[in-house]
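Possible regression after last week's pipeline update?

I re-ran a chain I had predicted before the update to compare outputs. Posting the input and the new output here so someone can diff against the archived version. Not blocking, just want to make sure nothing changed silently.
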Amino acid sequence: MDRYGSDVLSGDWKRPPRGRSEPTPAEPGLVVEDVETGWVGAVVRVEKAGGVHVVHLEDRRGRTKGFPLGPGFLLDGRPVALTAPRRAAEAALTQARQAGARTASGSVAVTGARARVASGSRIYVEGRHDAELVEKVWGDDLRVEGVVVELMDGVDDLAGIVADFAPGPGRRLGVLVDHLVPGTKEARIVAQARALPGFSAHVKVLGHPYVDVWQSVRPERLGWSQWPVIPRGTSWKHGICAALGWPHDDQADIARAWKRILGTVRTYADLEPTLLASVEELIDFVTEPTA
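New output (post-update):
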């Protein structure tokens, strides 16, 4: 036998006789009793007044009285702490999420908006990989603005491409060029296109210094501190795949490699600033209200 009996302080010795209050959403129609006043009524609404949430209870005579939301109520004789209704809380959470939602480009997300009918302006990129990267990061923004991205399949005839597009008021053309650095073939081609008479005010050609758009993805996303230097005479993409230890025997292997690289891109923060600046400037150019 335990000569001293049980420990009087063991267990939940502070527990009130009726038990502890259970959090309960103040859903409309819920009938509760205010412990302090004895008022019994059904929840009519919950609102915020003077920085305090108030629950309004309607008694059986149709009279309504407000009480601070929280503990101090009985539900079927059990103590409860009334909380904001689930639907109101969920709506508030949804609203907060929408207010803070961002697209992959960092823009404030526009919810519920349909894509606009395509405008007359366009953004041209060199190839499929460029287009897929632009779509992944800026696609939401471009759909809201009604801007279509199209492929050029190279820039060797950029002057002819610009002339065929025939840019003008309400029909601007932005062009993104790979490996646009001084002294290169690309730089000479771009200079010729920019010099076309009659189009200069409605055309903007920008680029990035990378050999290929692959290189605009931050190397950290692939576990590198920098992209490898591929020797001259070696296909750049094949060399990159070899450095990564990926198959590179045919074009299908190269396509799969790009999908893996593209899959590491989550937002604009995974891209190099030079590409970001060029794409953002082209989007601004083709979407100016006076364009």
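Follow-up from reviewer: compared with the archived run. The CA atoms of residues 74 and 242 lie 71 Å apart. Marking as no regression found.
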